[in-house]
Design goal:
heterodimer, A: about 450 residues, alpha+beta, 6-stranded mixed beta sheet, B: alpha+beta, Cytochrome Bc1 Complex, Chain A, domain 1, 2 domains, 17 helices, about 20% strand
Chain lengths: ~450, ~450
């Protein structure tokens, strides 16, 4: 049964890969802006996303979080449209909008009924160059961001641990800094810091417009030319490489925070598609992550959660599309009565196994079947399709990388998986973070904590 | 595939505020004639089926919903959830590992979940027959022949206890649990779906089997199918997965929810930098006669993110919170009406006073003409977005079937929204929402516990 199914999947995958490359239309404006369009006529909707090459990995010390704060300020008005107008107009047209900032990109999007596309273009073009950045709006918005940081990080013991872990793993790489920024940097950020940052990065030659939906590619191009075409490009100096220094031995960080459960996070230095000398290696790491934790039948849930019952939850993570060399991460919550050390030992045993024994053909076939199916499933979301194109273009890989994925994953061999495991999952490239839970319910402790934190950001 | 989705989730910090749109709210038919054609029938053993043909992608979504949520726990909090979790942990001839492999071999994605009203079992698969057959065989076993193995039960029990511990370090979850507990008192909605420590420790294999036998029956099931299968194939699929279930009986009606008689404040000390605040009361049911007036009114009050009154007062004017909102969560019986935010501890009094003031003003004065026009345009103009994926459609039609809403619910939604007036909103809010009988829950540092 298994074999027969896989053959069928193989045929299907080939057909899909063919279909995919036919579907993306690429256009360029004279001012350097790139436009990607993909048709999806299932529903009368379209998503427009504007992606900028800027994010926390472009920032230097002292102004961490500035890209994300600027993202918030992009809703605070231009000469033509006052604060909040952007959102009001989109809402009045039945649209959904938002934005997100990552390490390597900042993106804005509107999902709307298809005939409203020009509204989205006009507003995005306007705020690409004409933001007013009023000081009084900034003062309020930076407080909102500090509340966001409290919500997402300060009051979440695992997020706190992750942040410290990341800062320990990376010393000279900008991946050292959290996307949302350090609290003290947010407290001292000014609107004057934002102005040059905006002028530097928000320009058509630093942006990609992605449209997916019930649209005609030539029509999209014409409209884009009309609205974005007149914008002046900027001179953008390439950023410095800021490569991570060579790690020379195991790094550890312990985070003490009020919590009920311990938590372990581990990360090995690994290359990504942008940085790999051997371009099969990231795909082998990708498959390796799936061997360990791609689905319920993968090794971590099977061996560590269900059989040994040493971890209550376990995750392996790897992002082959990062802009800079990154981490292969493993995070775990020990089962009741198990220690962080026991979990760590069990994880190491699994990693030794992938180094010493080839992955079985059956496991590999299963992962490949899942890749093929997920390529179909992701077509159910116009947003996700646009997101993949925009992200690949913005980190510098180019959207065509997406079409290569099934083929490249299929080409990965058990020997290659073993090779990357042996080469990269080594102690000298490892960082370990541990959450050491502190009492939560002592009133004195709660009071002390509250007073201290109330001083922050006021 | 689990990992591919993760690539995006980790690094992204988004600007805003989950648009707290009510789970399964309405969608509107617009000028664009995008309507949804639902075909419905009963299986031979009495289950209700809702089906939408979507041939554009070679895949199918099957969502089976049982009236077997935690409202059916009957004094054993966690029972519904644990029963639901155990379905995929060994069924028919397969143990847990073999079942997972069966789905994964063909890239099918299986999931199950329980909430207060619904227990959901769902499958997404490619529709190539040899692939779909493999996925369906496993899916059929999960629904018809779960084993409830004793050792798997013990593992799930330990995992649930860990999850309960983990919730104690989340101020948001602590607040939400305290809110439901105080709001619903002795009503079955009061206890958390995940259960309580005492109860989870005691649930037995016999409890699970009895719960499954009573509630996982055809008369108590609604099946939603969306995908590239014609009607005959969909019929065959449903008979295959549900046709052999005993007919059984529809679950009994849940008791009505008692309104609050007085205001009450519950404080939970927690060593966090922010205080999480929830304020509310029992709200409304699915199919409620005031549904559209309350829905549109709430959109203006705090249901639509930027531009809504709560967001303006709390975030836009004062920078007090990242997320601030209000919502109705309509359920079989009155689900909650909630206003919420998180702000640093020394701002909580100010924020709470603003919530109260904003609500009172809204009830007294109602929305302005401009606000109502804006809301109607937003809701009706955004209708096509709500049903632009098979996933969304499956979740809507399952909701329509489960709550016995009319089959033209989606296609008449815009008209129903447009019929809402300022007077109707004022009338509905003043009859239904009572600012002097509100429950307030605060979780944060330096609070005196109750």
């Amino acid at each position: 049964m298994l074999r027969k199914t896989l053959i069928l999947l193989g045929i299907l995958a080939w057909g899909l890969a063919q279909a995919a490359s036919d579907q993306v239309h690429e256009f360029h404006l004279e001012n350097g802006m790139k436009i990607l369009v993909k048709e999806d006529h299932r529903a009368p909707v379209m998503v427009a996303q504007v992606w900028y090459k800027v994010g926390s990995s472009y920032e230097n010390n002292g102004i961490t979080g500035i890209s994300h704060v600027l993202e918030h300020m992009m809703f605070k008005g231009t000469e033509k449209h006052g604060p909040g107008e952007f959102s009001r107009i989109i809402a009045e047209n039945g649209g959904r909008e938002n934005a997100f900032t990552g390490q390597d990109y900042t993106a804005y999007f509107q999902t709307m009924e298809k005939s409203r596309m020009p509204i989205s273009f006009e507003l995005e073009a306007d705020r690409m160059r004409n933001l007013t950045l009023p000081a009084e709006e900034f003062e309020k918005e930076v407080r909102v961001v500090m509340e966001e940081r409290r919500l997402r990080t300060e009051d979440k013991p695992r997020s706190l641990t992750h942040e410290q872990f990341q800062a320990t793993a990376f010393v000279s790489s900008p991946y050292h800094n959290p996307v949302i920024g350090w609290m003290n940097d947010l407290e001292n950020l000014t609107v004057e810091d934002l102005k040059p940052w905006y002028a530097r990065w928000y320009a058509p030659n630093n942006a990609t417009l992605v449209v997916v939906g019930d649209v005609d590619p030539d029509e999209v191009y014409k409209l884009a030319k009309k609205y974005f075409g007149p914008l002046k490009p900027s001179k953008i100096k390439p950023i410095k490489p800021r490569k991570e220094m060579k790690q020379r031995g195991l790094r550890k960080v312990i985070v003490k925070a009020p919590a009920k459960l311990p938590y372990l996070t581990m990360g090995y230095k690994v290359p990504v598609l942008m940085t790999a000398e051997q371009d099969w290696e990231p795909y082998a790491l990708e498959v390796l992550a799936n061997v360990l934790d791609g689905s319920d039948s993968a090794r971590f849930p099977r061996e560590l959660v269900r059989k040994q019952q040493i971890a209550a939850g376990l995750d392996a993570g790897y992002d082959l599309y990062a802009r800079q060399s990154d981490l292969f991460t493993i995070a775990a919550t020990p089962s009741e009565g198990k220690s962080v050390d026991e979990v760590k030992k069990a994880i190491f045993e699994q990693l030794e196994r992938v180094k010493n024994e080839p992955v079985t053909e059956e496991e590999l076939a299963r992962i490949k079947a899942q890749v093929v199916a997920s390529k179909v499933y992701e077509l159910d979301s116009v947003f996700y399709q646009a997101m993949q194109l925009g992200m690949l273009e913005t980190v510098g890989l180019g959207w065509k990388t997406l079409d290569e994925y099934p083929e490249r994953v299929r080409a990965v061999t058990p020997t290659q998986i073993q090779a990357v495991a042996r080469k990269y999952l080594v102690e000298d490239g490892l960082t370990i973070g541990v959450l050491d839970p502190q009492p939560m319910d002592q009133p004195e402790l709660a009071k002390k904590h509250a007073v201290k934190n109330n001083k922050q950001g006021s | 595939m689990k990992r591919m989705q993760k690539t995006f989730s980790v690094l992204v910090v988004s600007i805003a505020l989950a648009f707290v749109s009510l789970p399964g709210l309405a969608r509107q038919a617009t000028d664009s004639n995008h309507s949804i054609d639902i075909v419905s029938w009963q299986t031979s053993n009495g289950a209700r089926v809702l089906y939408v043909y979507a041939p554009q992608l070679p895949m199918v979504d099957v969502r089976v919903v049982f009236d077997a949520g935690s409202a059916r726990d009957d004094g054993k909090p966690g029972l519904a959830s644990m029963t639901n979790s155990m379905l995929e942990l060994g069924a028919g001839k397969w143990d847990t590992n073999a079942l997972a492999e069966q789905f994964d071999n063909v890239g099918a994605s299986f999931s199950s979940s329980a909430a207060r009203d619904m227990a959901i079992v769902q499958l997404r698969s490619l529709t190539d027959k040899p692939i779909l057959d493999v996925a369906l065989a496993a899916f059929r076993a999960v629904i018809n022949a779960p084993r409830f193995d004793a050792d798997e039960l013990e593992r799930i029990r330990r995992q649930t206890l860990i999850a309960l511990k983990s919730q104690q370090q989340s101020p948001g979850t602590i607040a939400s649990k305290a809110f439901y507990k105080a709001l619903y008192g002795k009503h079955p909605y009061a206890t958390p779906t995940i259960g309580t420590v005492d109860s989870v420790k005691q649930i037995s294999r016999d409890d699970l089997k009895a719960f499954y036998r009573e509630y996982y029956v055809a008369s108590n099931a609604v099946i939603a199918i969306v995908g590239d299968l014609d009607k005959a194939a969909a019929r065959e699929l449903v008979e295959d997965i549900i046709g052999k279930l005993p007919k059984g009986e529809k679950a009994a009606a849940l008791p009505p929810v008692k309104p609050l008689t007085t205001s009450r404040v519950i404080n939970k000390p927690h060593p966090s930098t922010q205080t999480h605040i929830l304020v509310g009361q029992p709200g409304m049911k699915r199919g409620d006669p005031d549904y559209f007036a309350l829905y549109v009114g709430n959109h203006i009050l705090g249901g639509s993110g930027f531009g809504s009154r709560i967001m303006e007062e709390i975030r836009e004017k004062r920078g007090l919170a990242y997320s601030s909102y209000s919502y109705f969560s309509p359920m079989r019986q009155d689900g909650p009406f909630v206003m919420g935010l998180q702000t640093k501890n020394d701002k909580r009094a100010e924020a709470l006073a603003l919530l109260d003031k904003t609500l009172r003003e809204f009830i007294e004065e109602g929305p302005t003409r401009k606000e109502l026009d804006h809301a109607l345009k937003n809701i009706t103009g955004g209708f096509p977005l709500r049903i632009d994926s098979n996933k969304d459609i499956a979740s809507y039609i399952a909701m329509i079937g489960f709550y016995d809403l009319p089959l033209d619910y989606l296609n008449t939604f815009n008209a129903n929204v447009e019929a809402v007036t300022i007077e109707k909103i004022k009338d509905a809010f003043s009859r239904r929402i009572h600012p002097d009988r509100l429950l307030t829950v605060q979780v944060g540092a330096d609070l005196d516990g109750d």
